[in-house]
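[job 0412] stage=fold_complex status=start
inputs:
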Amino acid sequence: MPAAVSNEERLFSLVLALLATETGLTKADILSSVQGYRQRYRPNGGNASLERQFERDKEDIRDLGVPLESIELPADQGAVQYTRYRIPKGEYDLPADVTFTPQEIALLDLAALAWREGSLSGESRRALLKLRSLGIESEEPLIGFAPRLRARDAAFDPLRAAIEHRHVVVFGYLKPGEDRVRKRRVAPLALVQFGGRWHVHGVDLGARARRTFLLSRIAGAVEETAEGFETPDGEPAEEALDGLTAVFAANRALLELQPDTDAAARLGSRGEPAAEGRVAVHYTDLALFADDVAAFGPEVLVLEPQELVDAVRERLAAVVAAHGGDRG
Amino acid sequence: MADAQPLRVQDRLAFLLALVPYLLDNDGVSVAQAAAHFGVPEQRIRDAVELIAMSGVPGETKAYQPNDLFDIDWDRFEQRDEIAITHQVAIDDSPRFSAREAAALIAGLQYVAALPANADRETVARLTAKLTRSANGAPAAVAVAAGADTRLGLIREAVAAGTVLVFDYLNGRDEREERSVEPLRVESVDESWYLRAWDRSRRALRTFRLDRMRDVRTAPDTPAERPEDIELPERIFQPSKQDRSVTIEVAAAALPLLADFLGERPQTEPARRGWVRTRLRIAHLHGLKRLAAGRAGLLVVVEPEDARRAVHDWAVAGLARYEDPSTR
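[job 0412] stage=fold_complex status=done
writing structure:
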């Protein structure tokens, strides 16, 4: 029995073999000849587990952005259909005219480091490897600076995958003020973070209109359907951010902040001074802003709008009720 | 075994595919230099080089003849720890980014670009175009609108220069006091910015929120006092021995959103329907009352009694501001 070939070596050998072929290799070619498969290949059949291995390896390789193609050839006189596999070199290689300056590399390093936690951290790490591969040294080592982006919402990954696949998704959504989760069918176009919160922007197929949803209000799992959709023209992410910015500008609360408190420090630096020592603060989502304001307890008095006054009072009353009474 | 940790195998494959073009472009590079460039241990480079040198394509004979394999100058490698590829097969260029890798870099770029002295819109647009062109498949639209703190520029400069910073700080107990610190690192979590520093009066590492600082100024000629061997822990918030534990009930759906306080996998036990009971470590009640008041309907402090009472009283005081006409 020959020494076992590591997973790493098998995958590397598969990539090399598929890059080297012009016409493509059949599955039988691969299993019988490529390092890591050939050692386990049985010429007389019974290769089911090896075939499953190959299927998984293909997915792992494609996941890295390697353009592993399957070419279906017309069936020969009713015989088994042939599929040939290859990696076209022209689509594998980074375009020759793409180069980065040392400053750009430094900026991209920082961009990749921002994702050092959670769902996109693996992607960022691998993107950094590919950048390093170009041999360009970063301009200045980035000492003492560690910005961090996060995507903790469970809906983030499935939505990102559905955007990539251009598949319609179905999810339950709890709109503020409604006590029932309603199913939404959405053609997702972009994920945007605004005000520190993730939103998905897309076409609400029920309402037949563009909508932006907060990920934190998605209840339960996001289900990716097999239904595809055409991507509309334009830059959906920018449109979503423009929309949120407009909502932010239009929503303005007038607050009275107790001086020298946490509220004064934090809301004060978010807002702008208004008449009589008051502070005007903008927000995108009334319910979420009401949560933020309620946290400050007596340090904030909301003067307007009335809906915000009501929402904050409602929250504080709920907290009193939940923590009230002498339970002894 | 083949299924174990597929992500790590993918990372290893990505590393090999990135390393080969780098080695081809940097003929005779030392192991130490390559390790520094990729930010990996030297042994990882040596292992990878050995694997590459034994790999290749099946070739016409399907028998991995010497001419079908990579080769290196073994004497140079073994005696001088330098890498010179003498024969190459199948790959010479860096691989393209996957759509997801490009999306992660583009979103990270938008986030860090909003910070002072990083980049202008043109640079971001130019890099976004380059990354999009270098990706295999259209990157999912992921965008981030980041707001920068006005104090950030000065603080970042002080970190880079190692200058002592002095500022008025509103601490977690709502007391304002002057702090003198040796700044070590600026960190962010989405929209929140933190300075991690050696606190000169407390003689310990502390984390400060930028939006609780006032009158930030530098004290350029103050010599550093911190111990030389000080190391910043990876986590921003460190538990302290003085922390106390409180029992809370949380709506199960809200658990991921409390990961900052509870950790990624808190120990929970079922409570009433849809709720779980868990324990939270806190430094003092000032933070807890804000945490609970900002999460009406999602989080209830159960015990100890003084903690429950503190939350109750905080919300009562907040409500009183709306009910007492004299405060308006």
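[job 0412] summary: Chain A is about 40% helix and 25% strand.
[job 0412] exit 0
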